C-alpha cells in the first residue's frame, strides 16, 4: 500500500461529505444510500487479457517502447535482452514458435514471454500485415494455439480499466463520469475473471467481455479518474460483486432486471430518471404497416382484425397484449429491432406508429443520465447509488478474507 494512495482516497471521501444535495433533487432521490467503506489497503492486481482473440494471428512484430524488456522461454529462462530500437518477430511454425531479432536471435521455442522492468514498461506490436502499431503495458506471452498465435497481455488491472474506460466513454467527459465507468469496469472485470478460464486468460479484448483496444491509449484525464477510484468495486448487501449493467439512455425510467433478463436483483430495480430525458438518445420513433407488425410478432388473425388501438407505458410494462395475443416487450424489441422497450403505440392509417424513449436494455446505470448528473455536480458515489440500489463501494482486497 502506497501512502499517497490512501491520502488520495481520503481526500475524495472528504470532498463527498461536504457536498450537499441540491434543492431540486426529487424526494426519492434523498433516500438512496451508498456506503463507502474505509480504504485500508489496495493491492495492484494483474489481469490476463487475450488479445486479438477474433483474429487468426500468425506473425507478431514486438518492440519495447519504455522500460527494459527481456525475452523468456517456456522454462522462464532469459533467452534474449532487448536493445534500444530493437524488434523481434514471432511466428508460428508447426507446433512451435520461431523467434527472430535484428540482432541475431533465431530460435524455436514452445512459448515466449516478454517481460519489462521499470514503473510502467510498455511496448508496441503489429499483428500479421496490419501496419498499425498497437500499444500495451506490462507483459506479453505468446504461445501456439490451433495453428495460430495465442497472445495474452498480463497488465495491471488499473491500466486495463483505464484503457477500457477510454474506449467506452471517449473524450471530453466529466472526471466524475470517468470515475463511474472505472468502477463499473473494475466490478465487471473482477466478477468475470473466470470467463475465459478454458482459453488460458481472464477476459478477451472484444465486446464479449469489454473492449480493450491497443489503438486507444488512455488519456491522462482517464488515468487520473481511474487512479482516484483505484481498487474500488461495487458489492450488494451480501457482499457479492454486482452485475454492473448499464445502457445508453433509459428514456426517463430504468427497467427492472427481471423484466429484461428473468432474474431479479435487489440493486437492479427501476428508478425514475429525469436527467437523461433531454439527451441525444432520449426519444425515437418508428412506423410500420400493421400487417407486418402482426406477422413479425407471430400474432394470429384475430389481432390482425383489430381496428384502432393504442398502447401506452406511463410506467414500463412487461407485456404487450393485443386481443388474445401477448408478448414480452423485451422479446418484441428483439423481433422488431427497436431501440428500447419503452414506447407507446398508436395505429394510424393502417400503420403502427411507435413513440419511443431511450436507447438500450434500460437496466442499471443510464449513461446519459449519469453524465448529466456528473455535469450538474453530483459525485460518483451519489450517482452510482442512484442507479444501483443499496450497493456499497469496497476495495477489491476486502473481497478476500484478511490474512
Ligand atoms: Zn470475452
Ligand atoms: Zn436515463
Please state the average pLDDT score. 87
What molecules are bound to this protein?
zinc ion
Low-confidence stretches: 1-33, 35-43
Helical amount among residues, as a percent range? Answer: 10-25%
> How many β strands by DSSP?
22
Q: What Rg, in angstroms, do the CA atoms define? A: 25 Å
Principal-axes geometry comes out as: elongated
- Class derived from helix and strand content: alpha+beta
Termini Cα gap: 15 Å
Report the major sheet. Answer: 11 strands, mixed
Share of β-strand residues: 25-35%
Number of helices: 10
Short note summarizing the structure:
This protein is an alpha+beta fold and 403 residues long.
Could you name the key traits of this structure?
403 residues; alpha+beta; 24% helix; 30% strand; elongated; disordered N terminus; binds zinc ion
Amino acid at each position: 500500500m502506497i501512502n499517497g494512495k490512501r491520502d488520495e482516497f481520503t481526500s475524495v471521501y472528504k470532498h463527498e461529505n461536504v457536498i450537499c444535495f441540491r434543492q431540486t433533487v426529487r424526494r426519492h432521490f434523498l433516500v438512496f444510500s451508498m456506503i463507502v467503506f474505509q480504504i485500508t489497503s489496495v493491492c495492484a492486481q494483474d489481469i490476463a487479457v487475450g488479445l486479438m482473440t477474433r483474429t487468426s494471428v500468425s506473425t507478431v512484430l514486438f518492440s519495447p517502447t519504455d522500460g527494459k524488456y527481456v525475452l523468456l522461454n517456456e522454462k522462464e529462462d532469459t533467452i534474449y535482452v532487448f536493445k534500444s530500437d530493437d524488434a523481434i518477430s514471432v511466428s508460428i511454425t508447426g507446433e512451435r514458435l520461431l523467434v527472430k531479432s535484428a540482432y541475431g536471435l533465431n530460435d524455436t521455442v514452445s512459448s515466449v514471454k516478454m517481460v519489462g522492468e521499470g514503473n510502467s514498461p510498455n511496448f508496441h506490436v503489429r499483428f500479421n500485415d496490419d501496419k498499425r502499431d498497437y500499444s500495451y503495458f506490462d507483459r506479453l506471452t505468446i504461445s501456439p494455439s490451433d495453428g495460430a498465435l495465442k497472445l495474452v497481455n498480463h497488465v495491471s488491472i488499473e491500466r486495463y480499466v483505464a484503457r477500457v474506460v477510454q474506449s467506452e466513454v471517449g473524450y471530453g467527459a466529466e472526471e466524475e463520469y470517468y470515475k463511474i465507468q472505472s468502477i463499473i469496469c473494475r466490478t465487471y472485470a473482477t466478477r468475470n475473471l473466470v470467463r475465459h478460464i478454458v482459453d488460458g486468460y481472464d477476459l478477451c479484448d472484444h465486446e464479449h467481455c469489454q473492449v480493450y483496444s491497443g489503438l486507444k491509449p488512455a488519456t491522462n484525464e482517464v488515468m487520473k479518474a481511474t487512479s482516484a477510484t483505484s481498487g474500488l468495486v461495487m458489492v450488494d448487501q451480501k457482499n457479492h460483486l454486482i452485475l454492473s449493467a448499464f445502457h445508453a439512455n433509459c428514456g426517463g425510467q430504468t427497467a427492472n432486471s427481471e423484466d429484461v433478463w428473468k432474474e431479479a436483483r435487489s440493486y437492479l430495480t427501476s428508478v425514475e430518471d429525469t436527467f437523461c430525458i433531454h439527451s441525444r438518445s432520449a426519444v425515437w420513433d418508428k412506423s410500420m404497416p400493421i400487417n407486418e407488425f402482426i406477422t413479425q410478432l407471430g400474432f394470429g388473425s384475430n389481432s390482425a382484425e383489430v381496428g384502432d388501438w393504442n398502447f401506452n407505458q406511463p410506467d414500463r410494462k412487461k407485456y404487450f397484449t393485443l386481443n388474445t395475443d401477448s408478448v414480452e416487450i423485451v422479446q418484441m424489441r428483439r423481433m422488431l429491432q427497436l431501440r428500447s422497450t419503452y414506447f407507446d403505440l398508436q395505429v394510424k392509417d393502417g400503420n403502427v406508429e411507435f413513440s419511443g424513449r431511450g436507447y438500450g436494455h434500460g437496466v442499471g446505470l443510464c449513461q446519459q443520465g449519469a453524465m448529466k448528473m456528473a455535469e450538474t455536480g453530483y459525485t460518483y458515489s451519489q450517482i452510482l447509488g442512484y442507479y444501483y440500489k443499496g450497493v456499497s463501494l469496497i476495495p477489491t482486497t476486502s473481497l478476500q478474507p484478511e490474512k
